[in-house]
Amino acid sequence: MSHSISPLASPFPDMPPIAGVRLAVARAGYKAWDRTDLTYAALEEGTTVAGVTTRSRCPSPEVEWCRAALTLGQARALVVNAGNSNAFTGDRGRAAVEAIAARVAGHVGCRPSDVFVSSTGVIGVPLPIDKAEAGIDAVMQAPAADWLDATQTIGTTDTFAKGASTTAIVDGRTVTLVGIIKGSGMIAPDMATMLGFLFTDAAVEAPLLQRMLDAANAPTFSCITVDGDTSTSDTVLAFATGKAGNAPLASFDDAGADAFQAALTDLCRQLAQLVVRDGEGASKFITVTVAGAESDGSAHRIAMSIANSPLVKTAIAGEDANWGRIVMAVGKAGEPAERDKLSIRFGGVQVARDGLAVDGYDEAPVAAHLKGQAVEVDVDLGLSEGRATVWTCDLTHGYISINADYRS
Amino acid sequence: MSHSISPLASPFPDMPPIAGVRLAVARAGYKAWDRTDLTYAALEEGTTVAGVTTRSRCPSPEVEWCRAALTLGQARALVVNAGNSNAFTGDRGRAAVEAIAARVAGHVGCRPSDVFVSSTGVIGVPLPIDKAEAGIDAVMQAPAADWLDATQTIGTTDTFAKGASTTAIVDGRTVTLVGIIKGSGMIAPDMATMLGFLFTDAAVEAPLLQRMLDAANAPTFSCITVDGDTSTSDTVLAFATGKAGNAPLASFDDAGADAFQAALTDLCRQLAQLVVRDGEGASKFITVTVAGAESDGSAHRIAMSIANSPLVKTAIAGEDANWGRIVMAVGKAGEPAERDKLSIRFGGVQVARDGLAVDGYDEAPVAAHLKGQAVEVDVDLGLSEGRATVWTCDLTHGYISINADYRS
Fold it and tell me: Which domains occur in chain B, in start order?
């Protein structure tokens, strides 16, 4: 966490422990830094797991390992390495993941496939197996860590620790959901994201947990972008220990399933927005809503075209109500749009309607809105009922500074 | 031309006059600036015309006007307004274009549809008809201008004047081709681009000229990107006066058609690369070549994914051989790719092969290559024969500075 704290940072919340989850951190020394960089979560027997991973065609071996392990739906441990993503490292990368899983399985007395592994950091350098194994041996002896420790330990270019929690009533019992997440650049998840880890004491069977996580992912992690660049390592895993004692949820029709789904989606939305708030160089949190599109999918693609446009993002960084760039981004999206039906609002103030500037439009209230940290852009295409909301941040000198010398 | 000159600038070449073309410039005063901003080209009777325009769904009325006029294939005049794109201005924008064409037609004694109009600058402000008409009246009295005058007058955020010329032998006669172009941001043409104007004294029938321009556009203007943002006004027009006296080219099978096509494509490539060299904030000219793809189209999409990646572009700005970001950009393109067959070269030096870093790979020669102004990135997917080359520039603080306060 080397860069100055994001001006959009949120304080780390008080988060309750989750029965059946024990956390610990250690120093594997993956980089020449003086911090913990190996996070471990021990999960009690009976924990189910679901996950969503990057759609990159060049995924890391950790992503491939998790995908295979997810088919079994059982988890006993999570290991997260920070400082080295182990992506694009061929056989040596795969060997490192297998060694980690085997080492943990030996300590725990479980199958290697019960061990989930994620890594984040530089691409192209095989994760050193000796450091990983020594780190695992150390973390087994380490005292219990709290959520803040774990969240700080999974971070890389993150400037603040990002976590959230919520509750739901299932089968008459209060279940708790906690999530931690890291990520601030190479963020355009498109069906998965960054590294995010969700824990709940609810009992949820693995196939349903997977369907619920897919449903929660679509309107949350898949609706954020920092720079349009999709990581090779994006992974979100959800672990359910079942210690709350509810009758296990197995179907969307079960009592409490709706409440749990709502809580899970809410948790994912909080975490996704925190990632945007830590977007590299971000000074504004931008909400882009597109309505009146031919379909929700079309609205989403147009909203993403706006949210990824460097000209829109630099205009907002400059607090410039340059709505012409919104028109440009709508036009280039390749989706149905009719220039002369298009309306645009900044902060709720209509600046363009039916394809031209609003008569007598006064920039002052819009300029005032743009000076704030939360910027709202609303586009109405006037075609049909399709609708989508996405979140992004502005593009500033900070992004250039961070990324022109990150690896060095 | 308010910003400091691009470090990648090329000197404006000596360019010969084209028989049948007379240039002039005037001060319409579209903005509060002390420069010429209206360019006029008189074209002798018999001039044929072809054009390619933006695929934006929100095109400017100028683009719509040119598309309609192109169906007739005849041109007598070109008017280019700088400082105001007249895009997204509804009926008032259309009225301005019609007024300009009518005014010129009155002076020349031609049909309004023989008058081609382009405008570039801020979006959303109707072009003032009174200023346009006064400018046209003035330009009719103005002395002849040269290519440099005209090129400077069509520019907006351009930091240097961009032109190129070439020749071909057709029907035993040397024909000359000249082109001028403007553009440095909002550049991702995808089938058309910026404002570019090509003039030749060759005789080419309009339908063939259109097919030749389409063919020349695909591997040139459609293969450049500065920021991935596609303009509402992108237009390239080609005018053929026929004054060279060759038997008019009517078919690709005609003698000299191949030579003319090659010269036209060469001209377009020179102009396209000049736009990249004036990319906003550019400090490096980057050539991205993708080979071994499933198809040429797939190679092009992967090359564009690399060329548009902010993380790739900032790494190159920082002279950092961060090839992991190339892997990321290949992976996110959504095209067929196999991580373990992927090879990457910087400046011809292989840094990754078969999905991992080359053993004993030394960064020194690559770092030296990255310190230069011309950076070459070659990716081989190892799948099939598909191939594409695109050109872009790096992403620097200059881009942020230019675009966070352009309109103000």
Answer: 21-277 (3.60.70.12), 285-404 (3.10.20.340)
